[in-house]
Specification:
The chain has 362 residues and is of the alpha/beta class. Helix content is 42%, strand content 25%. It folds into two domains: 181 residues, Rossmann fold (3-Layer(aba) Sandwich), CATH 3.40.50; 173 residues, Glutathione S-transferase Yfyf (Class Pi), Chain A, domain 2, CATH 1.20.1050. The structure holds adenosine-5'-diphosphate (ADP) and magnesium ion (MG).
Length: 362
């Protein structure tokens, strides 16, 4: 799949912008705080229904304006999809695919698939488990509406159960009902997470070993509870849950570990190793999504190239030959060195495109 066009109105510092993307590499370059990441954020919104930077969608509306609007046209070979997102001051979002309003974000998933890579992805390795769960969930939701559905049902029931525990209204009979539903959805989620992490892990290990001269990467799923013991453990922890007024067992406590040559990268890895893990993970995702959906996802690289050494940069450029990619950068030097193919260049200044040109850099 390929993004043909993206139009923005009153989107952060962008008053009005219309971008025709090329099928290959698109470079958005310019000084800091000009609107480059804003453009990637708008594409991200079309894939996931939310921003990677804020939960408060009204922050996206240009200061002093009433609403913001995104339109994205995706070409899938035989047909095109049009995504429209309208963000209002009351934090409400209206989303439509081909002019048909979507009732839940789950209906949007899969319309356009992206892989987004930015320096803050390092948090995936360094920070707490919630970052890693979020990562897995975002990827799986793009790929499977059933997963997205199971996950939203699980969290809805979990929220209700926790409210019940907080209000001290949890009796055994009510908890039985809640727990059987949590176990039902939880087991399906464990199964999908397990398969996804194994498959991504295999691909990421191969890529990682190529770019790091043979260092082996192992990505391991650490479920809070196994499918087999789910009911039993929930039941055993019920008294504790009532006492602490929260649900201690379940997929909302899952984690993943990243090991390099058998050693935990979170605790012992260098910044460079963390970066290489992230890069391997992202490129593995591209392969994985392509295999599962038949379409290459669009790769969004936000300010990551200048952080990588030449070998890793070259590896990226070789990997993205047939993948539509949108790259942001403050300069164009690293491209001049690495890219022989056509590249469409947009110079972004103060929320506008100053120059847009298609050329082969020498
Ligand atoms: N709601 C908003 N209205 C107007 N400007 C905004 C809004 N939100 C962010 N900005 C501006 O957008 C700019 C940041 O854009 P960004 O895309 O992150 O920059 P960069 O080009 O460095 O990637 C900043 O100048 C910021 O003040
Ligand atoms: Mg930026």
């Amino acid at each position: 799949m390929v993004i043909k066009n993206i139009s923005l109105i009153n989107y952060r510092n962008i008053e009005k912008m219309d971008i025709e993307l090329s099928e290959g590499i698109n470079l958005l370059y310019g000084n800091n705080a000009q609107g480059k990441t804003n453009i990637l954020e708008a594409i991200y919104m079309c894939a996931s229904g939310r921003s990677m930077r804020t939960h408060i969608s009204k922050e996206i509306i240009k200061f002093g304006k009433e609403s913001a609007h995104i339109q994205l046209i995706v070409d899938k070979g035989v047909y095109r999809d049009k995504i429209n997102i309208h963000i209002k001051k009351n934090n409400k979002k209206g989303i439509a695919v081909n002019n048909i309003p979507v009732k839940s974000i789950n209906e949007l998933f899969g319309t356009v698939n992206i892989v987004f890579f930015s320096p803050s992805d390092l948090m995936l390795i360094k920070e707490g488990p919630s970052y890693r769960r979020r990562y897995v969930d975002i990827e799986l939701c793009q790929l499977s509406r059933i997963y997205a559905d199971n996950l939203s049902r699980y969290y809805k029931i979990l929220k209700e159960r926790n409210t019940l525990l907080k209000d001290e209204k949890a009796d055994d009979m009510t908890l039985d009902v809640y727990d059987s539903q949590l176990v039902e959805y939880g087991k399906k989620i464990i199964e999908d997470r397990n398969r996804f992490i194994n498959e991504i892990g295999l691909r990421a290990d191969i890529i990682h070993s190529e770019i790091s001269s043979g260092e082996r990467l192992e990505i391991k799923y650490l479920p809070n509870v196994s499918e087999k013991n789910y009911e039993k453990k929930m039941y055993e922890c019920r008294k504790k849950d009532i006492f602490y007024k929260s649900t201690s067992v379940g997929i909302h406590r899952d984690d993943i570990s990243f090991n390099i040559n058998g050693i935990n990268a979170r605790d012992y890895g260098s910044q460079g190793q963390h970066r290489t893990i992230c890069l391997s993970l992202k490129l593995a995702e591209v392969e994985f999504i392509k295999e599962k959906t038949g379409y290459s996802p669009i790769l969004l690289l936000d300010d990551v190239l200048s952080e990588l050494d030449r070998k890793r940069q070259l590896y990226i450029f070789n990997s993205i030959k047939n993948i539509q990619t949108v790259i942001t950068s403050t300069g164009i030097d690293e491209f001049a060195e690495n890219i022989k193919e056509n590249i469409k260049i947009f110079y972004i200044k103060n929320g506008s495109i100053e120059i847009s040109e298609k050329k082969a850099l020498k």
